[in-house]
Amino acid sequence: MSPRVRGAVAAGLLGLLVATARAADKTPVTPDLVLSYWTGDLNAYFSALNVRAHWLPDSKRVVFSVPDPEKPDRLWIQICDVDAGACRRLFEGSDPVPSPDGKTLAFMRGKDAERQIWTARLDGGGEAALTKHPGGLSGWAFGMAWSPDSSRIAFLATPERDKEQEQKRQERDEREKAGGSTVVVYGSKEERPQPAEIWVVDAGTRTSRRVGSWDTSLYELSWFPDGKRLLVYGWRWGAAYHEPKDDSDVIVVDAATGTRTNVVRAGGEEMYAAASPDGKRVGFFYDADDVRYPDLYSVAVVPSSGGGVRELTPKLVASDRPIWSPDGSSLYFIARSGAFSQIERVALDGRRTPITTAAANHKNASLSPDGRRLAWYEQLADGRARVVAARADGSDPRMIVNLTPQFDGLALGVGREVRWKSTDGVEIAGILVEPPGPRVPGRPLVVEPHGGPIGGLSIDGQLMCIGPLERSIWTNKGYVVFAPDFRTSGVYGWDKILAGREKGDFMERDFDDIMTGVDALVKDGTADPNRMVVGGHSYGAVESEWILTHSHRFRAAVIYEGAGDWYRAYGDLYSVGGNTSLAWQFKGRPWETPETYFKNSPLFMMKGATIPTMFIVGDGAEYGGSNASPYEFMYSALKQQGVETQMLVYKKEGHVVFKPANVRDLTGRIVKWIDDHLAPRPERRS
Questions:
Q1: Under 8 Å between Cβ of 500 and 488
Q2: Distance from the Cα of residue 287 to its chain's centroid
Q3: What's the mean pLDDT when you consider all of the chain?
């Protein structure tokens, strides 16, 4: 052996030893450790980490809210100097929004009915409630925005249930106590959602007035630069009103009169919108095909007075809302690119420029007023989260705040993007999470199809739904976790969706995408083909059911809240009145194209299934979960065919098991199920 070769071997061994030592110095990620975060006091901390940083007018500082590590149910507003990397706590509150003049901070404080908009001076002091809105201001659709002159704040609110509706509910409760009827008539006013309202509060006099009220949900409220008009998008979910179709609109509202103008009308898409700096155009997410395939949109512009829509990009899996550059020449947006969501910029002539490329999910992007800097929330593939700032072209990124310091001493799995070719040559992406330390070939494999299916991959675990540390539970046991994407996520192009619709083979093509990814990991030595399990939640569970009924390669499966019967899903639970998305995908309603619904529903394909399977379901629509009957059918089918199976029904739980005792029980059962089936089996002697 030459000196050079000996040196290379020695260096390699030294690197291996160093990596092993570093991994050994870390705290193992166990189920108990993860549960201490997600079912204990720290649950509030990690649940509140969806940080959105707002730039101050000086384009040097940002404000945002973070939970208190010592008292996680409390949130504090912080201000950070990006250049100095110095942050300081201001006061208790959440969701801060600085006024355009930089003098005042609006924020939220209080819980439930006491949750109101507050203001304080940015230099400290003057904290006072700005609103006293009946019932409080909360909910995932709530939003507020300063007027350009810093004199007013517009906000969205959903009023308390009106007196007539509340009276009917009380009367029904009284009838039940007296042994009478508790009937609810579908489509009656008692069932209809409350109308959404826009309000404006004067920051000086602290008086509020209602601008308008509409029978639709409203989102992403903002002002036009003239301070006279408001921009919002409305979404009316037909099923909630027992109507056959959905509606969505980009809406301009006169702030003084409440006069509403629909700039663009569509069939239920999420049309997040933003006014251009000169107020002449609106940038928004748009689906020209108007087919209600959620989250698959082009970035588009339209005159703010209405008119022709101009698409700047092809259809993308887009999220958040577009952000205009200060000169109005381009829009920043977030879209899926392979395994992760990335920030991009598109010019008005359609030229696209990637801004971020890291192996992380990016969201809540914010552009500084001078247009030179960006800030965003970033979650890395191993689960760590942080707030990052960079130049507007993505260069020179720097961490402003580490949001998960608790993870720094843990033996986290090592996550990265992997890509492979499906059976028809389409390149698919996934996330591979491996044990820390030296790479060991031929490890047991946990395959986790994601939910949705639109939107792509999640960094959070998909088997137990207990957050981003979940996958490190498996890697600390020596398993490899593979989260494969598949084409119905929309990430791989609209043409793939159209082809699946035309041939009616969505599930078959997804199966090919997943299994070719598994084959690639077996081929390169990452995975042991004889020690593999599969499982997922929601749509990930449906994909797992398809694998259950079309493969014999896995030792076990976990099916968590994913009823695999599209025929029934068209009109039950949350789709009473019909599901426009399914009707488009399957080219008709169930009674019109029943064969397409059946051929994509694994419930009807249980003959010959051999994979031991654990089924997990909540307690029906009343608690936000699924009905148990499809799972009971599949459970019975496996039992009758002599296949090992378990079925767990968590009473008074919804789509995700939430109560701490139940989360602990579910986690323990899934971990044992996976461990038992991945355990080495004794070799047979001839």
A1: yes
A2: 20
A3: 89
Q: How far apart are the first and last CA of the chain?
A: 43
What tens digit of pLDDT does each residue of 299-320 get? 999 999 999 999 999 999 988 8
Transcribe 620-666 into DSSP letters: -GGGT---SHHHHHHHHHHHHTT--EEEEE-TT--SS--SHHHHHHH
Residue 14 has pLDDT above 50, yes or no: no
- Residue 415 has which token pair? 């996550």
Q: For the whole model, what pTM was predicted?
A: 0.90
Query: Are residues 358 and 381 in contact, defined by beta-carbon separation less than 8 angstroms?
Result: no
Bridge partners of 311? Answer: 300
Specify which residues 560 forms β-bridges with.
Answer: 537, 616
Tell the residue number behind the tokens 């609110």, with chain if given. 157
Widest distance between CA atoms in the chain: 94
Residues 6+ apart with CB under 8 A from 631: 559, 563, 615, 617, 647
Picking from 290, 362, 303, 395, the residue whose alpha carbon sits closest to that of residue 51 is 362
Q: How far is CA 184 from the centre of its chain?
A: 33
Q: Is 139 helix (H, G, I), strand (E, B) or coil?
A: coil
Least confident of 6-10, 186-190, 338-342, 671-675: 6-10
Neighbours of 643 (CB within 10 A): 17
Structure-block tokens of residue 72: 């996680």
Give the Cα separation of 498 and 93 in Å (integer).
46
- Given a contact cutoff of 8 angstroms between Cβ atoms, the answer to whether 347 and 369 are in contact is no
pLDDT of residue 245: 75
> What confidence score (pLDDT) does residue 591 get?
96
Please check whether residue 374 is in contact with residue 355, taking contact to mean a CB–CB distance below 8 angstroms: yes
Write a three-state SS string for 227-279: CCEEEEEEEECHHHHCCCCCEEEEEEEECCCCCEEEEEEECCCCCCEEECCCC
The predicted-structure confidence for 73-114, as pLDDT tens digits, reads as follows: 788 999 999 999 899 999 999 999 999 999 999 999 998 888
Q: What's at 91, amino acid-wise?
A: F
Structure tokens at 284: 């928004």
pLDDT reading at 9 higher than 60: no
Contacts with 223 (C-beta within 8 Å, 6 or more apart), sequence order: 145, 146, 147, 148, 154, 229, 230, 231, 255, 275
Residue 486 and residue 447: Cα distance in Å, rounded?
13
Q: Considering only CA atoms, give the Rg of the chain.
A: 26
Specify the pairing of strand 316-324 against strand 330-337: antiparallel
Tokens 């019967």 belong to which residue?
A: 565
d(CA 69, CA 682): 47
pLDDT, tens only, 329-371 = 999 999 999 999 999 999 999 999 999 999 999 999 999 999 9
> Beta 296-303 vs 310-311: how paired, if at all?
antiparallel
Q: Which residue has the higher pLDDT, 128 or 139?
A: 128
Six-digit token string for 25: 């110095």
Q: What is the DSSP letter of 410?
A: B
Tokens for 586?
């399957």
DSSP string for residues in 479-542: -EEEEE--GGGSTT-HHHHHHHHHHT-HHHHHHHHHHHHHHHHHHTTSEEEEEEEEEEETHHHH
| Dist CA 181 CA 171 (whole Å) | 10
Query: How many residues in total does the chain contain?
Result: 686
When pLDDT is cut at 50, 70 and 90, the band that residue 387 belongs to is very high
- Provide CB contacts within 8 A for 89, sequence distance 6+: 76, 77, 78
Task: Please check the confidence at residue 386 and state whether its pLDDT lies above 60.
Answer: yes
DSSP label at 27? B
Name the residue with tokens 């793939």.
496
